[in-house]
Every structure is written in structure tokens, then in C-alpha cells.
Amino acid sequence: MAFTIPNHADAASAFQAEPDSVDFDILAAGYSGSGVISGCAVTAQGSPNMTVAVAAGVVSVAGVRASVTGANATIGTADGTNPRFDMITINSSGAIATTAGTAASVPELPSIPSVSIVIALIFVPANDTTIATNQITDKRVFVSSGAAGGVLDNIIMGIGSDSDAAIVLSSGAVSADVEVTNVIEGTSDHLGTAANSLIISNITNDGDIMFVVSDGGNSKGLLKLDGANGRVVVHGGDLLMSGAQKIYFYDVGGEYMSSDGSTLTITGATALTPTVGSTAWANATHTHAGSSTGGTVAASALTGTAASATLAATVTVIDSTDTSSFVALFDSATGDLAAKTDAGLAYNSGTGTLTATAFAGPITGNVTGNASGSALTVTQAAQGAITSLGTLTGLTLSGDATLTGAATDVDLIDNNACAISFDAAGQAGILAIDTQNCAEGVKMSGKLTVTGAISTTGAVTVGVDDTGHDVKFFGAAAGAFMLYDQSCNLLEVRGATAAGPGHLKLTTGEATVVACDVLGKLEFQAPAECGTDAVKVSASITAVAQATFAANANATDIIFNTAHDCGVAERFRFTSQNEIGIAGANYGTDGQVLTSGGAGAAAAWEDAGGGAVSAINNATANELVTIGATTTELCAEANLTFDGTGQFAFVNSATCSSTDFKVHSSAESGATPARLILRTGCGNTADTFISFHGVCTYEYAMGVDNSDSDKFKISGSALGTNDKFIIDTTGAVSKPLQPAMLAYNSATDSNVSGNCTVVTIDFDTELYDQNADFASDVFTAPVTGRYLVAGHVAVIGITDASRNTDLEIDETDRDYHTIQNTYGDSGGGRQSFPFSTIIPMDSGNTVRIKYGASCEGSDVHDIVGEASDNQTYLSIQLLA
Amino acid sequence: MILFSDGIPLTQSEQASLNHATKDAESWLQSMWDEKVRLRTSALTKDWHGELASATDSVPATTAGEVAAILDLDSYRSRKQEEAAKSGYKATDPETHRINGTRVTVPDASRYNVWRHETVNHDSPAAVLFSSGMELVDQDVAVVEAYVVDVEDWLMGALLGQINRGKKKMIAEYKPIMLADESVDTLPTDDDKLVEQIIARSDYQAAHGS
Hints:
The structure holds two protein chains of two kinds. In chain A, strands 44, 45, 47, 50, 53, 55 and 56 form a seven-stranded antiparallel sheet that branches. In chain A, strands 46, 48, 49, 51, 52 and 54 form a six-stranded antiparallel sheet that branches. In chain A, strands 28-29-30-31-32 form a five-stranded antiparallel sheet, with no helix packed on it. Chain A is mostly beta strands. Chain A is built from two helices and 56 strands. Chain B is mainly α. In chain B, 34% of the residues are buried. Classes of the chains: A mainly beta, B mainly alpha. Chain A binds chain B through residues 749, 752-753, 756-760, 762, 764, 769, 771-778, 780-782, 784, 806, 810, 812-815, 842-846, 848, 850, 852, and chain B through 32, 35-36, 39-40, 43, 89, 91, 93-99, 103, 109, 112-113, 116, 147-148, 154-155, 157-158, 160-162, 164-169, 172.
């Protein structure tokens, strides 16, 4: 079926059987080529609803061909009162659309959307919910076969099911490289066409077009337009240019070939490049256009004789590997290819000698072969110059070499980059020997005599290790010299024969000499030793200015310095005023004498003896002395020493054991009280105390702490530190670190016992714990001793059911109980458990307080706790 | 006899507190044990002198011999045996405590100190004392057990007491220093954290080693 207006009997409504002006619009569009080419039928659903099914197909809309994909078209909700017509259309992109009409008692068709064709009308009654077949009117106008009069301008005739090829008569001109929809696609490459041109196009990728004829009943594809390769192929027959037609190349106006029936002519700026491959070419008569002045003909393709008159002005002879080619063209042959000779280059074929007046230019290759004659001889006496020889890899001269010229440098460089350089231009007459890259320097086995001065900027070494040479410097006077005598390994300075003494002078460069400036110095050292101190200068003698030098002042001291275990230090000095200093400016005092300290001890200035005491007997280090028995001598006391650091020592007394210090009265058996006095100055502003030293540290100090109201203390490492025992001036005794603690229960612990539960009493708050022995309700004895364990536990909540209550001091080795038998008498529900016991405890033993009661139905007993009015508390103190 | 076969693990706070109180914790605990043995040996021979005299005419003329003779007496019972023979409450029965406001029950009152130590997390101990166990002479243990229900608990009690002593003294010494230190902004209220802060101080490390 195609476009229709149904009879009333076939329609759902009489409105469908009535023509509408839009029907004529649909037909008119079809007549102008816009309609359905194939498919696109609209049908009701198998289970009708408010959609209709549109079949796939192809349409032509305003000259545009479009494929349509089958799909459902949705019909909008029906009007509640009046019917309407909905229009199903397809646009030029192949898209399906539904255009709802206006509901009315007499409905009319909606207008056709632009650039669309109508394929069906749907009659939608009021309140309709399904679209049945008789509500659908087919409005498709098929246009695929064209109108009877032929296809109109610009109507694309698609060939093939997918319009793979197209034929169109384009009413307008088509510009070059311009695309035409469905005809010329992609990035096209074509010439322009005039108006009303017929365009045949295969738009299938790489598709060809072939013109085929029948030759006696056999088809021949005479002309193929090759799409894939972009070629016009003539096949199966000749390409005949009838009459004087031309075959143009590149474009009209360029080269072309033509024939008058007997001669083939190539016209234009022709060029035969690179070769003419036909062998017939050599034998043919070739005509070159008179206007042509150039072109290249490959030599290999040219045989025979070319008339010189037709040759171009320039003939280029190509390079050739042909070893039989010999070309000699001389400069004088310009413009004329006739070969000529030049006397400047002569070849004597009899002797094989080649003579040239000159040779210029580089030789880029090697010159090989040996000369067997008299080598290279330059007979002319004075050559202007032989320049730029480059590098001679070897040169042996059997005669003298004389280098002349005003500024000629000669550099000799060996493999080690040691050089002898005679610099004629820079420093005329200077012969430089540069051995900086050569370890051995300059070797000279003979004698070197220099009549001028010698200067050097580097080190001078004479001889080698273990093999020396004398070095001698003569003085101005006869006999005077300085000699390093290698055989004696010494330096000798000798005076002139007439003047006598050798003279070594040490001078200072200081222009303004002030006190302590060193004028000269002699040093002694053992540099070959090992060790930081051993290699240092170990002794020196210096001359030192005593004060600023002036026109009439040059006071100088001689100082002797030696090292003992480190750097040198002054030991002895003579001053310009005849003073003798010992270890510095220590000149003693008037009347003192310089005395020996004996072996191992320094000399010192000491007062001269009074005469009576003549000696110190038995003296050893640090011993103090007493008057000897004769009163004319001093005796060293081995038992009484003072080491100079403030440490006195009393040892090995005849009546005391070692290290004892004894204070007694006038006699061992005397009755006079003995007294040891520690006393400060009269201001009494310091402590007086005795310290007790352990293995490494001071452990105890005992004495009077002046800074703490003169309390007598036994302290730790220093008096007043970690005081352990204190007696104040009133006689009160305190022991700040004595193990002692007091803790209490700050809050009542309810229902802790009563039914045989044993509870450790909680003393959660500490008032004091002097030695930090209490934690987690446990006291741990720091030392073995007798401890007073005292306190009180208050229990409430006791009922008449209670029988036994038990307070226990649980000490590690032994328990101590306070048991009360209530037996029906709760005592007002409250019991007190005071306790006080002196318990022997081993160091490390612990104490905790427990409470337990029985026969209550449950744990109803409370341990009383108060924040301030303490009723449950524990105190433990070390007594002894 | 080897006690604490896996050693005694210590937290950082415990180790630092112990080191503050004693230079060598293992030597200190060993000396505590030696003194305990000496004191209990003296007590044992004194307490059982009469019993021994009535049971035998002579004993070996050494302390060890006399102790062995006492321990061999038919009438001799260790403290634990005495507790087991009791009809009422025994030292090995459970007991309750209030710790940090919460009542807890210790399953064996005679091992209260061991229980105290075990309630502290020692999964990553800072140190372990006697890592191979503490080896004690059997007769020494027997002598102490005449008075002490659980020897291991006694050792642990002594150790915990010393740890507590070191901790309290360390805090008492350094808390005033830290309060006067302008670079210290806050002090932790938890003693163990305070100990950790103290031992991290350069002045503490200079005085006691790091």
C-alpha cells in the first residue's frame, strides 16, 4: 500500500475518510521528488498501545537520500474530550518524528514539519489508550522510479541498494574540488563543471567505473576509471587520436604530441630525461625544436656523430670510472673543444719525465713510491720560501742545520712532551728547556759552566739520597767559603784566611723591631721520628728583642728552649742586663742562689741557707719535714706527707694502724683531753664538716651546716645534700629520709566483705612516704629492721548475722590478726580495728592490711573512708 | 631451682625507675635474696632449735647441716603447707582489692605481687631481668619457704617495691626541676609518662646515663 485516503468503512473514524489540504501537500512533495524510496511502513503493535511501529527504509527528502532505521513512534496521551490526528514524519537525516495535531470536535491534520516527508497519519480518539490498525492511514508517496518525464535537475539517481553509485544532472556549475552530497564525497579532487553537467559518480570506496562494448558479441572493457589507483585505463583496444588531434601533457599549453599523419611532433619545452630507452632512437632522425636551448642527453645513450653545429655551448663530461678515459682540456681551449697543448706541462715519453713549471693546490691523497735518484735537490741558491710543510714524522740530518732569519722559533718536542725551545721572537737569545712533563728533567753528563748568574724558580737538589756532592760557595776574601761537605755530612762556614773566624749571621727582616721580636733562631728537630710530639722541634735558641730598637737601643735576650713532652718552652735565658732567668723571666730575688733540684728535678732560685740547717735527711716526694734530732738538720717524715694539692696524709704511725689519724693528748697514756677542732674564720660564714669518700665518690658528709642555722647534719655527698640525720641547736633530732609513711582511705568502700570475702584495705591517699616505700596498698621494707605498723580500720554495715570479723596485718613472714566475735550483736553495725605492732621485717618483705568477715548473707560490710576525718589509715615507720 | 624461667620483663618506666634506685638491678635482687636467706636461716635455726633438740642428740656442725636436719623433721611444715592445713581462710585464697576505684579479685592472695606485675602490659618489654631465669639454691628456697608462702611472689614484691621507690624518688627529684624549666610547657599526670619524660631530659641523662 502507498498513499491512501480510506473509505469510511475501513477507517476507525469518518474523519480519516475525508481529504485534507495536507494530503495534497504530501502528494505535491512526492511529485517533486520527496517521498519514500523503499520501506517505512507504519503498523500497529501486536499488542496495541500508544506506539506504532515504523519499518526501516530509504527516503528522499529535498534531494537528500537518507536511510531510515526501524523504530517505534510514540503517540501522546489522547485528549479527554476531542479526537485529533497525529502525523508520523521522517526528515532528511532519516529521523522519525511524531507531530501531534490539535484535538477538536472536527480535527484537522497538523502542518508538515520542514524538510520532512509524511509516511502516516494516526487518528487518536478522545481518551484513546491504544492505536489499532484502522487508526493508521498510509501516507507514503514512493518516488524511487522517478516521474514519467524523466529525472529532474539535481535529482540524484542512486544506483545500488545503498546508492553506491549516483547519476545527477547538476543544474548549476560545480567548482573544482567541491563536494556534492551523495555524489562527490570526502576531500575530493576534481575539475570544475559547467551548469547542467551530467555527473556520474561511484561513491563506493575504491569503486571503479568501466565502459564496456561488445566486439562481435564479446564484451571489451575499453575504458576503465580505476578508483583505487586514480587512473584512466584504456584496455582491449587502441587509443586513437583522430586527425590532427593533440595529446597534451600536464595541461593545455604545455608539451603535447601531435601528428600530421607522417611525423610525430613533440611540441613545447620538451626534455628527454634522463634517457631515451629505445634502441631505435639512435637510428632515427631527431628534430629538436628551434626554441630549445637546453636539455641533457645521457652519453651512454648517444652513439654516432653529433653535428657540432647543433651542440649546446656547454658540454659537461660526467665523471667516469672508466680507466681508459684520459681527458686533458687546457685553459686556453675555452669556447672551443678542440684539444690543445701547453708547454708549461711537458711529458717526455722517452724518459718518462714529467716537467711542470709549477704545482699548486693540495694533495689530498698519499704520494707513494720511493725516489731512487738523487732525492730532492733544489739547485737554486736562495729560494724565496718553503712554507707550510706540515708535520714531518721523522727527520734525520747528516749535515749541519742552520736556521737563519730574524725571528725564527725552534721547538723540539719529544714523546714525553719535554721541549727545548729557542724563542727568537719573544725573548731573543733565550733557550728554554721545559721539562715540566718529564720526570727526569734535564740530564747532563758533562760539565756545565755558566759565566753569568743563575736563578731558579724551582727547587735545587744536588746529588741523590746516599750519594751526595760537595756544594761550595766562595767568599770575596781568600780562604773564605761555605761548604756542604758531603763526605762528612756537615755544613762548614770558614772565615777568610786573613780575618780568621767563620761567620754565620741570622738576621731579621723586620724593619721595626719591637719587644719580643725574634731576630734569629736555631732549631733542633728529629723529623724522621714517628709520633705527633716526636717530630716537633725539640729545642731552639732564639735571640729576642727585649724592647723596641732605637738609634741607641738594641737590648736583646738569648733564650734557650727545649721540649719535654710537647712543644718547646723556655728553660733558660740571658738578658741584656746580665740577668739569668729560669723557665721564664724568673730571676729570683736578691740574695737567692740557684740550686740544683737533683736528678729529675728542676733547678730553682732559693734563699741561701742560714747556716744551722745543713741538710734534709731521707727526703722523698711530698714528705713534710721536722727538725731533726740535732736541731741542725731537717728530717723528712715519711708518715706525714703533703702532695701540694691540699691533701694531707698521715700514714704508718708507730702507734696507729695504717691510714689512722689520731689526736691524743701530750702522751699516749696522758689524761689530758684530746680535741680535734674544725674551725672556720671568726666571721663563721662557712661550714665545718668531715667528708667520707667511698670508692669513687664522696658518700657522706658530717658537720655543721652554716647555711641551715648551724644544724649538725649527716648528709649525702655534700653537707646539706640528701640530709639523713639532723640535730638542730635546740637538740631536736630528725631523720628526713627515715622510712616512714602514712596513708588513709579517702572514700568508703561499700559491700567489700561479710560473706567470707577477704579484702585488702585500700589506703588510696598518702600523707607522706619519706623513703618511697609504699605503693598499691603495699609497704615494702627497704632495709631489715623493726618497723612500727600502726593504724585503724573502721567497718560499718555489720548486721546481727555476722559472727567473726578479722583484721589482719599480712606481713610476708608472719600474719598478725585482730579477731572480734560478734555472734548476733552487731554493735550498732560498726566496729573499730585499731592496731599497733612493732614487726621485724626483712629487707624486701611486704605488709598489707586485710579484712574479712563471715556469716553475713552477702558482702554488706563497708570500709569507712573519709577525705579529712580519717578513720581508716595506716602508718609504718622504721624504728630500729 | 630456677624461678622466672622466662625472665622478668620490665616496661620502660619500670626499668628507668629501677635503674634510678639501683645501679645493677639483677645484682641488687640477688643480694636481697641472699640477705633474705641469711635472715631466714638464722630465724629458722632459732625457731626450731627446741624442736630439733628434742628430736635428735646431734646435728652436723654446719649451718647447712642444721638447716637440713630441721627441714627433715617430721613436724616441720613449710608456710604453704601450714596454710593448706588451715580450716578457715588461707593465704592462697582469693582476695579483693580496689584499684583505681574498681574492685578486682586476685585469685591467689599469696601471689598478689606476681599478679600486680602481670596486670601491666609487658608485650614489648624495654628490658628483661634474669632472661634465662633466676637460679636459686634449693635449700635456700626451702629455708625461705619456711616463712614465705610463695618465694617468687616475695622476690616480685621486693622488686616492685624497689621500682616504686625509684619512681617516687625520681619524680620527687625532677618534678621541681621541670616545673622551673621554662622549656617545659606541660607535665603528664600519669606517673609512668612523667618518668618517660624525665629520662628523656638531657640533664637526667647526663647525671644517670641515657
